[in-house]
Specification:
By secondary structure, the protein is an alpha+beta fold. Helices cover 29% and strands 25% of the residues. A hairpin with a 4-residue loop joins strand 9 and strand 10.
Length: 761
């Protein structure tokens, strides 16, 4: 009966990149049998409020924020109207029956066009196509004036500059987005099942847009089928589906089709940076200047220009850069709005930086490895504050570099490169260093950078009456196996077998509110720390109960192997089950103690934690086709204490493969009219299983002082420097006179152009 009541929602999307909506006729669609509702943006404008922004950078401009556009469309795929019907087939037939008359407008498809004084305006009320600007260094009252990067560059022994482009790419998660909402009239209450990383943030956003109290909305995040940041933001359908469930008083579902995902789900990257670095006579960096543009697409998504901000803030990377002059400009174009994707602005910073170091090395008469070694932050300098104001917590960067080059796999790589060259094919080896901003917080800093939520996390722990442990996390697993890592952490902290622990997550009715949700590589360090706090509170309460039962002082009661015993007494201890039974019976507890064993731990980090590492890549080039193969990679990595080493390694392998795609094949291109060139995997090439390189992964362990378990994040490490290392290797494979590779992906035609270069004599 429930299934028969369920309706399906589909969205009519714009076929134009830029056009005025002259008229919309929904008469024929409404007349189709099985259609329950049809609505346009004008009809819903006052019904559904504007979206909220997670990243609301100071001075940023916003769009209308409604789930359906009204007067004009600004990118191919923008929602124009919506149909709710008996099933997908009827809904799609009705959608196709809607007649829209458009007046096409000139499309703005590049950042240069967007900045042209005579460019068409996407948002006329803005007065231009600039969404926000940001700059570094930032002067802080009470602190000395930042060093003058202009003077440092003017006095530099050598200055190297180049312009770099990172193309627009898409997360292409295994499963597309989906939303199902049920309506319970007895509440009234909405239960939303949605493939999201951020259940509490979706609840907040839907409540604000629909005017429904948050306590009448329940959000459940099931298995999301991959996310990579793309599912961290609120999408139009997540407001439309509950709106129609409320209006129609029946369950409504939306399932994004794969071709829809290429125009409706947020892509990322898409930056162009002019970067220059000055060096002294000893090849040490004296200053850095960057001017870069972020192509935001048609309007800011929920994360605004956050990825672009992260690029500038983290541009110094792992190097000692004493002075910076960085300026970022985010502009709008007639493309799908930009959003988050694994790395969140960090690959866009790493690629220009690591490529320019390779370009500079021969000009400075140095090997690329030696140039990096001279400029890496030394271990005795930590904690180290960068010229952009980021506090780097801990690390031994030079050791990591040396360890990578001492690996037997590096000797194998050198031998294989020489064998490939002897066989008549180009081959090269490239290196890139990186650090990764993880454990994203703290809450006190967020308002300074435009983040409208907090950076803390909460976990609850319950010891059941039988002594078993239940942990409820606010994090959302997306394939990173958090449930296993947290079960291990809880088992260690409670001192119980792993199978005595159950981990639950992804439900706003049971998971405690968490501020920034699952993203920014914060689960192990921040959520893990909140779990430690909750577990320790529970163990402390049990110790006090055990002491009461044993007629001992709590300070004399020790806890080990799932038992509580009086230290040195030699007598048998009390089991978890015995102590828990007393806690829930309630009649024999210490005076003033509440019955039960349910605790909450909330953790807000003092500062960020920076994982770091080095990537070495070998490439093998087909000289006839320009196809590039990556046979081997070495990946050195340090994320502090590891909760589960196998999970850490798997995260690195997956990220490295995504970085390989970004370096060589993945790109969403648009023609002059703003039409995307990719609407499926026939046009958008991701790496496949046979293309996975042989990966030699090794680790060092430098705990962070800013997490209770010493853990740093690992979710984005793999993807940050892999493109840089691969392109550095590819440059090494080309003739010495080949033009520098400055854009990714490096497609086969670009490789063939480089191979056609006359070798330097």
């Amino acid at each position: 009966m429930h299934q028969n009541r369920e309706a399906t929602l589909v969205v009519l999307r714009s076929p134009h990149a830029h056009a005025r909506i002259v008229s919309i006729d929904t008469t024929a669609a409404r007349a189709i049998d099985g259609v329950y509702a049809v609505a346009t943006g004008a009809e819903l404008f006052d019904e559904i409020g504007p979206q909220q922004y997670l990243w609301d950078l100071p001075g940023q401009k916003t769009g209308h924020g409604r789930p359906l556009t009204v007067d004009k469309v600004r990118h191919v795929g923008e929602p124009v109207a919506v149909v709710v019907a008996r099933d997908q087939y009827v809904a799609e037939d009705a959608r196709d029956a809607i007649e829209v008359v458009y007046q096409p407008l000139p499309a703005v498809t590049t950042v240069d066009q967007a900045l042209d004084p005579g460019a068409p305006l996407l948002h006329e009320e803005w007065g231009d196509n600039v969404q926000v600007r940001a700059a570094w260094p930032v002067a802080v009252p009470g602190l000395p004036e930042p060093p003058d990067a202009g003077a440092a560059l003017a006095g530099a022994h050598t200055v190297v500059r180049e312009t770099f482009t990172t193309s627009r790419i898409l997360a292409t998660s295994m499963e597309t987005r989906g939303v199902v909402c049920d309506y319970d009239p007895t509440g009234p209450r909405l239960t939303i099942h949605t493939s999201t990383q951020s259940p509490h943030q979706i609840r907040e956003g839907v409540a604000a847009m629909l005017g429904v109290p948050e306590n009448r909305i329940r959000v459940i995040a099931p298995d999301v089928g991959g996310a990579f940041g793309m599912k961290a933001v609120l999408y139009p359908e997540e407001a439309l589906v509950p709106y129609f469930a409320l209006r129609l008083r029946r369950p409504v579902r939306f399932t994004e089709q794969r071709d829809e995902s290429f125009v409706a789900s947020t892509p990322s990257r898409d930056q162009r940076m002019e970067l220059e670095i000055g060096f002294d006579a000893d090849a040490r960096i004296v200053g850095l200047r960057a001017r870069y543009l972020i192509d935001l697409g048609s309007a800011p998504s929920t994360c605004g220009a956050g990825t672009g901000w992260a690029t500038g803030a983290l541009l110094c990377g792992p190097y000692t850069v004493p002075a910076v002059d960085i300026s970022a400009t985010a502009v709008v174009t007639n493309k799908t709005p930009l959003g988050a994707y694994r790395g969140f602005g960090q690959p866009e910073a790493n690629f220009p930086l690591e490529r320019l170091l390779d370009i500079a090395a021969p000009q400075l008469g140095l090997d690329p490895v030696e140039l990096r070694r001279r400029n890496l932050i030394p271990p005795e300098a930590f904690p180290f504050t960068t010229a952009t104001g980021q506090l780097l917590d801990s690390g031994d960067y030079p050791q990591m570099l040396d360890l990578a080059l001492d690996r037997p796999a590096y000797a194998d790589m050198l031998r294989e490169r020489d064998e490939i060259r002897a066989a008549g094919r180009p081959a090269g080896i490239g290196i890139a260093f990186f650090n990764e901003c993880t454990n994203f917080g703290p809450s006190g800093v967020f308002p300074l950078i435009g983040i409208t939520t907090g950076g803390w996390d909460a976990t609850s722990a319950t010891v059941e009456p039988d002594g078993r442990v239940r942990v409820v996390s606010s994090q959302t697993p997306m394939g990173q196996d958090l449930e296993t890592a947290f079960a291990q952490l809880a088992a260690d902290r409670f001192g119980v077998p792993l199978d005595h622990v159950t981990v639950r997550f992804g439900d706003t009715d049971s998971s405690h509110y968490t501020a920034y949700a699952s993203g920014a590589s914060r689960a192990a360090g921040i959520a893990g720390s909140s779990l430690i706090l909750a577990a320790d509170k529970a163990v402390d309460k049990m110790r006090r109960i055990a002491a009461h039962l044993l007629e001992a002082d709590p300070g004399d009661v020790e806890h080990s192997d799932g038992e509580f015993r009086v230290r040195g007494a030699g007598a048998a201890g009390l089991s978890y089950a015995t102590v828990a039974a007393a806690a829930y019976q309630g009649g024999n507890l210490p005076e003033g103690m509440e019955p039960g064993l349910e605790t909450l731990g909330a953790f807000d980090p003092q500062a960020l934690a920076f994982s770091y590492g080095v990537v070495v890549a070998l490439v093998d080039v087909d000289p006839d086709t320009g196809q590039v193969r990556v046979p081997r990679m070495i990946f050195g990595h340090d994320c502090g204490n590891q909760l589960n080493p196998r999970i850490v390694d798997a995260q690195i392998v997956g990220g490295a493969l995504q970085g390989q795609g970004a370096a060589l094949t993945e790109e969403i291109v648009y023609d002059e009219s703003g039409q995307p060139g990719a609407t499926g995997f026939a046009d958008y090439l991701v790496p496949i299983a046979p293309e996975i390189p042989e990966l030699d992964v090794f680790h060092t362990v430098t705990p962070t002082p800013f997490a209770l378990n010493g853990a740093k994040g690992v979710g984005e490490s793999g993807v940050i420097a892999a493109p840089s290392a691969i392109v550095n290797a590819l440059q090494d494979a080309l003739p010495a006179g080949a033009a520098p590779l400055t854009s990714i992906p490096v497609l086969p035609e670009r490789v063939l152009d480089g191979l056609a270069t006359e070798p330097a004599r």
